[in-house]
Amino acid sequence: MKVIQASDYQEMSQKAAKYVIKNVRRQPDIILGLATGSTPKGLYKQLIADHSQNGTTYEHVSSINLDEYIGLPAHDPNSYHSFMDEQLFQHINIQPHNRHLPNGETDRIEQECMHYEALIDAKGIDLQILGIGENGHIGFNEPGTSFASQTHVTTLSESTRQANARFFDSIHSVPKQAITMGIASIMKSRKILLLASGPKKANAIRRLLDGDIKESFPASILNHHPHVILLADNEALSAAI
Ligand code: F6R
Q: GO: which molecular function terms (predicted)?
């Protein structure tokens, strides 16, 4: 794993954007794997600024998101569909038919998981953007998830629901389940850019860089991937160095 240090969140976001833009320009029909959450917001802001100032085009780019809550309508302000629309999609020229997120509203959920995994296989993710949970989750793959997992339904841990409660009225409104790419699905990506910022992530980054690969710490599998960049700020790296 290649580690790149940034001084703070702003610099991490700028460096991440530079890397993503370089890849998009080099491969105009790139398939991007995208994440939600607080961490990539600065990256998305930079991509939007670059799109309007420098004209980087997303006309032929496709995106495949990591996850979506089960039971929230796509138009709910807290759905990941809404998040992606607001934070990125409506500000760049990525085509609606090229944007993919799991459908958390369907009652044929098993079929949706199979369909989503088939999409990942058919398209092939060129560059996956990842955040990391304080407990080491990637996507919504909580500790204990099989490294062989494909897209599946997962029950969110109490700590993940609490971490995400800041976006909702109360913890009771946070959905209990989500559809997520599995760990094996994520590992199929050609390249992975893992972002981490702030002191709350320091312990997870220390454990990741310890190199001990075990299912009780999902992100540890990334040590097995041939092309991962960890781009983290000083605070996230503070326990590792
Ligand atoms: C988001 C996702 C999650 C987040 C992780 C970190 O699509 O799959 O794994 O990346 O929970 O979240 P933040 O960035 O809010 O700290």
A: glucosamine-6-phosphate deaminase activity; identical protein binding
The structural domains of the chain, with segments of one domain joined by +, span 2-233
Pocket test for ligand 1, best of 32, 100, 125, 140 (most atoms within 8 A of CB): 140
Q: Judge if the beta carbon of residue 219 lies within 6 A of ligand 1.
A: no
Residue with the smallest CA separation from ligand 1 atom 1 is 36
Task: Report the distance separating Cα 126 and Cα 28, nearest Å.
Answer: 11
Provide the whole-model pTM: 0.97
CATH T-level assignment (fold) for domain 2-233: Rossmann fold (3.40.50)
Close Cβ partners of 193 (under 8 Å, ≥ 6 residues apart): 16, 19, 20, 127, 128, 129, 130, 228, 229, 231
The one-digit pLDDT tens for each residue of the chain (241 residues) are 999 999 999 999 999 999 999 999 999 999 999 999 999 999 999 999 999 999 999 999 999 999 999 999 999 999 999 999 999 999 999 999 999 999 999 999 999 999 999 999 999 999 999 999 999 999 999 999 999 999 999 999 898 899 889 889 999 999 999 999 999 999 999 999 999 999 999 999 999 999 899 999 999 999 999 999 999 999 999 999 6
